[in-house]
Design goal:
With about 140 residues, the protein is mainly α. It has 6 helices and no strands. About 15% of the residues have low confidence.
């Protein structure tokens, strides 16, 4: 299986209640801080999906290497696939939260609510609000 598809496949497996298999797929791609994932047009969407999957349930072992905001902007970004033009702030929040960076996660979630609301992305803004509330209450 192509490395970029493992995080999405993990989501499908988890949706079918196959948590152990889902975690195994995520563990495979997360090995060595995602060393096997090419930094190409699929990288951004694969990392975003991995962050979403690692957040539920929290899997710090599968989040190391995902929280690289420097890689998501400007000249450091790979060309982005049409299907994923950006990593959502909520996905960055998930990665930060899983890595134990609660305050940073809250900041990402707050930014995601603002940005997604301003863009009219209601479902994404609601997801970010939900994640923000959970992070704030998670002491």
């Amino acid at each position: 299986m192509a490395p970029a598809y493992r995080p999405g496949y993990a989501w499908v497996l988890a949706g079918q209640g196959r948590e152990q298999e889902a975690h195994e797929q995520l563990r495979i791609i997360a090995a060595d801080s995602f060393a096997e994932l090419p930094f190409d047009t699929n990288w951004l969407s694969a990392i975003g999906e991995a962050m979403e999957r690692a957040a539920a349930p929290r899997r710090a072992d599968c989040s190391t290497g995902t929280h690289r905001p420097d890689a998501y902007a400007g000249a450091n970004s790979p060309p982005v696939a049409q299907s994923s033009r950006m990593v959502r702030g909520s996905q960055l929040g998930h990665a930060a939260l899983v890595l134990g960076r609660r305050d940073e996660a809250i900041g990402h979630y707050e930014a995601a609510v603002r940005i997604d609301s301003a863009a009219g992305l209601v479902p994404w803004a609601e997801r970010a609000r939900h994640a923000l509330a959970a992070a704030v209450l998670d002491d």
